[in-house]
Amino acid sequence: MVVVGLVGNPNVGKSVIFNNLTGAHQKVGNWPGVTVEKKEGECTHKGTKIKIVDLPGIYSLTANSIDELIARDFIIEEKPDVVVDIVDSTNLERNLYLVLQLLELGAKVVVALNMMDLAEYNGIKIDINELERRLGIRIIPTVATKKIGMKALCDAILEVARHDKEESKFAYPKDLENAFSEIAVTVKEAPELRKYNPRWLSIKLLEEDREIIEKIRKTKDAERIFKTVERVKEKLSSRYDDLIIAIADARYEFISKILKGVMVKPRKKELTLTDMLDEVFTHKYLGIPIFLVFMWTVFQFTFTVAAPFSDAIDLAFAISADFVRSTITPAWVASLIADGIISGLGFVLVFVPNIFFLFLALAILEDSGYMSRAAFIMDKLMYKLGLHGKSFIPMIMGFGCNVPAIMATRTIESEKDRLVTILVNPLMSCSARFPVYVLFGSIFFSYYVVPVIYSIYLLGIVLAILMALLFRRILATGKPSPFVMEMPPYLIPSAKSLVIHMWERGSMFLKKAGTFIVSGLLLIWVLSNIPWGADIGDTLIGALGHAIQPIFAPFGWDWRIAVALFFGFIAKEIVVGSLGILYNTGEDVTSLKAPIENAMTPLSAYALMAFVLIYTPCIATVGAIKQETGSWKWTVIAIAYELLLAYVIAFLIIAIGTFLGFG
Amino acid sequence: MYEKINHSKYTFIYSGVLGTLYMVYGIAEMFYSIGIDLNNFLLFPFWSDPFAGFSLLVVGLVFVYPLISRKTETPEKFAYVYVGGILATILLVTHILVILANYIECYILLSEDFAGWTWWNDFNPAIPLGLLALPTMVLFYRSNVLQGSQKS
């Protein structure tokens, strides 16, 4: 078996090539961190099995972000037989930087020169044979979206895997090469560092790579190695003001040299579609209002256009539950199935169209390339608000689900920026809370339901901004680090990729429905029927509700709402499903209208919607926070501050609303 | 590659007039959402959604921008016409989908909440204005910039 690591800059078509080779589905997105975990697949070519590991999209192999460390550590520790670097042929100068670093690491590299059709369209001509000769590695032209070059790529992988690695043709200026050699001699003597390429370690030491310095610090030869490095730096200081820049400059100089005569670009730069759209979408004053227009359209699409599909599902569940009640005995089994499973699940699945429509809309914005522009225009504002520009993408992802959104913060280099983004991300209202807004919005605000729900989302954004500013001052002082991000060309998304992306995210909701939510609702049904036949207020769940209801008394919420919020910790979708069981209204959402209208006022309903927006995230999100922060302290802080903030905001809504006469 | 200079003047004038209409209706709809009804003057029904009005206003600003911009380069000015057309089309499609969705609620699902509903209830200035903006999309389609935007 041949093991291959797939690397490349973000947005070069790496995931498309991975899909082409392995047949697995991957996200082809424009966002940093879209493949934060390594994904594997297999294919067979000419009788040989090839295992392919899709590594995160990275610009270099420095230790600036977790993604870069993941990719680098995979190559060092797991020593793949071949590393395939996917290169954007329309941007060779930048993409070849990573190729050089891979060669320095000692990897056997094959370059897939992707997007050749786009290069041709842009009038870029590349002499691939000459480029191969100058770099000393195999280069395969590909068009991943049309599956062109995949066979040739596999041929090259097998060929390179079978042969020894050739001497790299990339050399630094003589004084730097001498410096590397001097440090390499010392590094070679350390037994703990045997798995690393000594020359590569030398380069990293002169580049002051944090992670490498830490690794060496733990070795017995640390003092000796650092002394040598200091001595070498002293010698080079007369020639170079900044060694890190000098090393990077040397790489770019080499790239310029090899591309001279190999790549020809058209002289006159014509205005492209991307240039024209960016002129408007990234406009200093119009950019943000245009973004708000897109968001409003997404909400209309998600709520109003999806509504008839939701109602159709509602009707289907109502008919199913009626059928069960009329045909199954004994009564408690019929009740368990009809009122517990069907009704409870129905309450949640009725929102599947809304959620899928939301993910479809977000997929259109992502796949077209607009999302990165949105991140760009928001960066200046984000910076002023104490958030990093790269925080914008996880924040937008939070509208779908907070779990992958929190995981997407891995590409934020600064730990402080990352921590602040993780802490405020749950305030971005995820799709699981959407059913609660739809239910209470429809009951109490009818014609105004869309602006009311929109206002809840805006409230979440405003609170996220305020909390980010607060956290910046108290917990993570200092300015956010500078924001560098690539904006890929605009593309017309294909229907297939949109459906795949929509399904990948929406199916997470369905899986949750089939596991957490069904289990949670069954638990609620059991607790609400012990003892059997008793009035629901006298059951175990009634006891729980009455015990915690006084906390919510100022908001005018009864014990049923308290119980629903309590179980909402498992999954927010349970809030709606549990209300159906607790109010014992049967299987369709509309039957909840009367009891809820009697139990609350529009003001207390709005306060509830705000509370659900803000209060403690679901168990899966809490798990993600713990995983990404690596700290129980920050996880507990996240839970506690959100509970407190939710209570305060709900209280303020009630107080101000009552004062203004809405109570 | 670009529209010829002698056509651009008329394109920008059309864009300016369209943009003005969008802005007028957008502001009127925002007023309507806070209880100030200018319906008698403006023919079309409005939604009680200030964000719907805001969307119209933004599209209007995009269309009007080529007339007020200090940019001298025609291609950049055309960008505003094209993007205005894209936004207008998105709003047009969205509003038509809303009408279709509510049609399904009323006539197929026979939802009680939609008893007595007609398509005029959900009609919005974004629809006729979006139809007026369609020539800008034809212009965009015929311009060479659209070619080469490959599917992902």
Describe this structure in words.
The complex is a heterodimer of chains A (663) and B (152). Chain A is of the alpha/beta class. Helix content of chain A is 61%, strand content 6%. Chain A folds into two domains: 2-162, P-loop containing nucleotide triphosphate hydrolases (Rossmann fold, 3-Layer(aba) Sandwich), CATH 3.40.50; 291-478 and 495-659, no CATH class. Chain A is built from 30 helices and eight strands. In chain A, the strands form two sheets. Chain A has a six-stranded mixed β-sheet with strand order 2-3-1-4-5-7, with helices on both faces. Chain A has a two-stranded antiparallel sheet with strand order 6-8. In chain A, strand 4, helix 3 (92-105) and strand 5 (109-114) form a beta-alpha-beta unit. In chain A, helix 15 (331-349) packs antiparallel against helix 23 (495-527). The longest helix of chain A has 33 residues, at 495-527. Chain A is elongated, with a radius of gyration of 29 Å. Chain B has 152 residues and is mainly alpha-helical. Chain B has one domain (10-143). In chain B, 68% of the residues lie in helices and 0% in strands. Chain B contains six helices and no strands. The chains are: A alpha/beta (663), B mainly alpha (152).
